[in-house]
Design goal:
The chain has 20 helices and 10 strands.
Length: 437
Amino acid sequence: MAFKENVGAFAVKQALSYLDKDPEKNLPKLLDWFDWFDRNDTLKNQRDLIRGVVMDKDNNWHKLVMSLWEDIDPGVRNRFFENFIINGCFLGYQRQNEYKEKYNCNIPWAILLDPTSACNLKCTGCWAAEYGNHMNLTYEEMDNIITQGVEMGTYVYLFTGGEPLVRKKDIIRLCEDHPDCVFSTFTNGTLIDEATDSRRGDGTYQRIIRAMNILKEHKLPFGISCCYTSANAEVIGSEEYFDQMIDMGAKFAWFFTYMPVGKAAVPELMATAEQREMMYHKIREYRQTKPIFTVDFWNDGEYVGGCIAGGRSYCHINANGDIEPCAFIHYSDSNIREKTLLEAYRSPLFMGYHDNQPWNENMLRPCPVLDNPGRLTEIVEKSHAKSTDYQNLETAKEFSDKCVETAEKWAPVADRLWAESHGGCASCKRCKMAVNE
């Protein structure tokens, strides 16, 4: 296996070098090579999608792909491609499947990791504001998590928090010590240029804009994480907002809807059914016209077979070492200081996810809390998982109960949209395939 992996890695590196010489001309040829390399059709759907983009030079996706050669530092771009394509996709996918089959459990493609609970901001509705700076993972603990993950095929790590750049030195050290992995950071951006911030004393928005300008000037890839709420959905869903993100240099955007996590949450900020439907239509519209890659982690359930948490595609490890099924699900029955990752994936809580996904045949209702209240409560109580909110303990039932009314109003809208886009089917072949994959 190691020999095959090394040969594959070398081949992809050579292909990327060939691509750099003339990306416009050589990318279509390179896809033919990938067809040959992926003879087991591990990534056939992705290859078909990319081929459709490349062949249409007027396509917005084609413009986005070509911009990676215009706007991104070559060394950064090639390291990302090598780690993402070779390790994160080809090799990682194979190893994950081996462990899934052997242990009959979920093995995540990515792990969200909180180096610290500390944050330099206190945003309304954010649970990090409640946690303070009391919890931190040591460098050795984070290093061990990544080492265990790579062994099982997980090469993608996203730092969250708190504000992860509070631990900037350790994050950089992890990147240096694991050059075969893909690392990304969910940051408020205000610590990217601390000296300038403290000198000028600008507001948070100005500091974030300055951070993006710095990243753009240094040709570093970045995206924007957007939480749409009842107060801002119309702004975030506007064409002006998308155009502004693109003008600022963002190559991707993640969309989340507000979740009332914790006792200090503000349920009134939950997006209405009308607003969520608006985002459903807007994001799909802009995907056809705007050169930016977007993912809506609730409304895009149909493309990934519903909920991706619980290790099905990702899981979350907080700054106390608690292994949680989702960044929005603060319950755990495992801690990295007491269990290995594999033991956690086979724990009652994670197996509850494994055995019950998808939570709904309608993939536009993917979440066990926001869309199907009560489902999370069942597996938390059955697994005896504990709340990981150490400031204000909230039961799974209390959390789910806050979502009941929102779920009831979204259900008929989601069912209508599902019927319209799937010819009235309850569970089409395409989505069943997505679940099985």
